From TrEMBL:
Catalytic reaction list: ATP + protein L-histidine = ADP + protein N-phospho-L-histidine
Protein name stated in the entry: histidine kinase
Alphabetized InterPro entries for the sequence: BphY/WalK/GraS-like, HATPase_C_sf, HATPase_dom, His_kinase_dom, HisK_dim/P_dom, HisK_dim/P_sf, Sig_transdc_His_kin-like_C
GO function terms (MF aspect): kinase activity
Stretches that traverse the bilayer: 6-28, 259-282
Keywords: Kinase, Membrane, Phosphoprotein, Transferase, Transmembrane, Transmembrane helix
Cited PROSITE patterns: HIS_KIN
A Pfam family per the record: HisKA
Domain Histidine kinase: 305-523
EC number: 2.7.13.3
Gene3D superfamilies assigned to the protein according to its UniProt record, in alphabetical order: 1.10.287.130, Histidine kinase-like ATPase, C-terminal domain
Recorded superkingdom: Bacteria
């Protein structure tokens, strides 16, 4: 994949993911705000309903009390009748409309002390209204004189009109405002009404309430009530006809936020879980893309190295064969032997490379048969050194052993474990720019034997050290062919040691050499 296209795709996917997260967060915030607004509207309706019921109950109480007093008085102290007439004639229909409205004012001698107010001597009076509507039709008699015949008569006798009733209630409200608040409403009544109204609206939430007069607390309030503006709701109580009132009924909900969140927690959790899944999936996909890109580059390097390493032996073998074909070569047997040795060595070299690839392939498919027997680690170390000591001597180096472990018997596969040690020693030789100087140590740590292979070669950076056991990974040192290999040796080492329930790790510093540790459980 083109590098620019890859970067563009990553940027677009990242922006899309950020957009999804932003939309989810905005949705959750909007849902909470909507729930809070809906809750506030519901609470406002609850308070208005409670106030209305309290005021209606107060008026009813006084009205019932007033009727009882009127019934007990029995006789009127004074009665006055006021009557209004209205006459209208319709020329088209020859109809005459007569309307009369009489108001009967009855005084029973009840003063305002009825409202627990000894400072006002205004009397309480009862009003009864009488409305009469008559329609006459004008007819001409035989003698030519007009005669009026009543067509319809409507008479209504009842209580005061709405306007008159409003006037009475206004007067009533003015007087009862002088009554102490604790005599007009009780804590039990308010608590019962608020609780019932909330329950009717499916709100099961603890609340605190209080009645305040001109901003000051009254006796009508709960102990835990506070004036926190963020959690309280307010409505006027006992308002006059103009909507003014010295009293305010306030209600607060200490657990409001928890209640609002709990109402959307289900959908919010699902949204968050799906968002996390998307983030994890995206991160995994991005990691795999980057990983595959790295593996692709590593495999390209592997193919280049493999081609280079096969090309050289093949060319050497071809040259040796051409030399042997020359008739003059048979005159010098030493040259023939030398050419044959070159062919054999190069053939072994290619065979070893193919074996490395096949080993890794079998390990990946779990097809490698590893049978373990009781073996001596020290014997395996000596065997591995014998495979590489000629190369070390040829380069003017050395391998010194310090086999000091008191116990060295382990359960291992002799062939594979020898290959493990050979691979580590081969790396120490290849990555030593000068003459290889290698020391091999053994020691017992608790129930394990530890093999330490130390060189004085080129060393590794911390970044390289973290990845040396990855398949196909090799440190680039300018020319990728200046050190032979395919990044398979240490991957093979890691897999074999893991299969032996052991550990392998390394320490290194650039230009100061490396130390490889192999740790195996003792029998």
């Amino acid at each position: 994949m083109n590098k620019r296209l890859f970067i563009a795709l990553v940027i677009l996917m990242s922006l899309s993911l950020i957009g999804i997260i932003f939309v989810q967060g905005y949705w959750i915030k909007t849902a909470v705000d909507n729930k809070e607004e809906q809750f506030s509207n519901t609470v406002s309706q609850v308070l208005q309903s409670v106030v209305q019921r309290v005021e209606q109950r107060e008026i009813k109480d006084y009205s019932d009390k007033l009727l009882q007093i009127i019934d007990s008085v029995g006789e009127l102290k004074e009665s006055t009748l006021n009557e209004i007439f209205y006459i209208e004639k319709n020329e088209n229909s020859n109809e005459t409309f007569i309307y009369s409205h009489g108001i009967l004012e009855e005084d029973y001698g009840i003063t305002a002390t009825f409202f627990d107010n000894s400072f006002d001597s205004t009397a309480i009076k009862s009003y009864v209204s009488k409305r009469t509507t008559i329609i006459y039709r004008e007819d001409k008699g035989l003698d030519g004189k007009s005669a009026y015949t009543p067509v319809e008569k409507i008479q209504k006798i009842g209580n005061m009109s709405q306007i008159e009733k409003a006037q009475f209630e206004d007067y009533f409200r003015v007087l009862v405002n002088r009554v102490p608040i604790h005599k007009r409403v009780s804590k039990a009544e308010l608590e019962f009404l608020i609780q019932r109204e909330l329950k009717d609206r499916n709100i099961d939430l603890d609340f605190e309430y209080g009645v305040f007069a001109n901003g000051l607390a009254t006796k009508i309030k709960t102990r835990a009530f506070n004036l926190n503006k963020n959690t309280r709701y307010k409505t006027p109580l006992f308002s006059d006809t103009e909507g003014n009132s010295p009293y305010s009924l306030m209600v607060s909900f200490p657990k409001k936020k928890k209640f609002l969140i709990s109402s959307i927690i289900g959908m919010a959790l699902l949204s968050i879980i799906f968002t996390i899944i998307i983030i994890v999936a995206y991160s995994s996909a991005l990691f795999q893309l980057i990983r595959q890109k790295q593996i692709s580059e590593i495999k390209t390097d592997f193919i280049n190295n493999m081609t280079h390493e096969f090309k050289t032996p093949i060319a050497t073998i071809n040259l040796a064969l051409d030399a042997i074909k020359n008739p003059k070569a048979f005159e010098d047997p030493d040259k023939v032997k030398r050419y044959l040795k070159m062919i054999r060595d190069e053939n072994h070299r290619m065979h070893a490379q193919v074996e490395n690839v096949l080993r890794i392939s079998k390990l990946d498919k779990n097809q490698l048969d590893i049978n373990k027997d009781r073996v001596d680690v020290h014997d395996l170390i000596e065997d591995a050194i014998s495979h590489v000591e000629l190369i070390v001597e040829d380069r003017g180096g050395y391998i010194h052993t310090h086999l000091e472990a008191e116990k060295s018997m382990v359960l291992a596969n002799e062939s594979h474990f020898t290959n493990v040690l050979v691979n580590i020693l081969d790396n120490a030789i290849k990555y030593s720019p000068e003459s290889p100087k290698i020391d091999v140590f053994t020691e017992v740590v608790k129930n394990h034997v530890v093999i330490r292979i130390q060189d004085q070669g080129a060393g590794m950076t911390k970044a390289v050290l973290k990845r040396i056991f990855e398949k196909f990974y090799r440190e680039h040192t300018g020319d990728i062919h200046n050190v032979k290999g395919h990044g398979l040796g240490l991957a093979y080492v890691k897999r074999i040691i893991d299969d032996h329930q052991g550990e392998v790790y390394a320490e290194s510093e650039k230009n100061k050499g490396s130390i490889f540790y192999v740790k195996l459980p003792l029998i």
